[in-house]
Amino acid sequence: MKGVVKKVSYPYIEFNSKIAGGSPIIKGTRITVRTIAGYYQMGMNVDEILTSLSHLTSSQVHSALAYYFDHQEEIDKDVATSFDEEYWKRQVQSHPKLGITK
């Protein structure tokens, strides 16, 4: 069928604006897809990720990886930002709750 767009469902992925700034997370946890993608990028396989995050199920990790592969550009950008030391310094310097406004 030409022109039909199928909506993909990720049963273990959710978004919560109060957790990780609204980044995609594994449902019922605070573990971001970015975290799973980071482990994967370091060369870890699903079993190794599960060893590190033993409270997760294989289905949760696979769902996070599926979401990652379908949104790789967006998640890779998020991963890069999470490792950008200057970005985090700027966040701390202008954090209103800390009363800092440089």
Structural account:
The structure is a single chain. The protein is mostly helical. It has one domain (13-98): Arc Repressor Mutant, subunit A (Orthogonal Bundle), CATH 1.10.10. Helix content is 48%, strand content 6%. The protein has a two-stranded antiparallel ribbon. Helix 1 (33-41) packs across helix 4. The radius of gyration is 16 Å and the shape is globular.
What characteristics describe this protein?
two-stranded antiparallel sheet; 2 strands; 5 helices; mainly alpha; Arc Repressor Mutant, subunit A
Can I get a quick summary?
This protein is 48% helix and 6% strand.
Q: What is the topology?
A:
Layout: E1 13-15, E2 24-26, H1 33-41, H2 46-52, H3 58-70, H4 72-82, H5 85-93
Antiparallel strand pairs: 1-2
Helix pairs in contact: 1-3, 1-4
Q: Can you name the CATH architecture?
A: Orthogonal Bundle
Main sheet: strand order: 1-2
Query: In percent, how helical is the residue content?
Result: 40-55%
Calculate Rg over CA atoms. Answer: 16 Å
CATH superfamily: Winged helix-like DNA-binding domain superfamily/Winged helix DNA-binding domain
The average pLDDT score comes to 85
What's the CATH class label? Mainly Alpha
- Might you state the CATH topology name? Arc Repressor Mutant, subunit A
Count, helices: 5
Percent of sequence in beta strands: 5-15%
| Principal-axes shape call | globular
DSSP E strands, number: 2
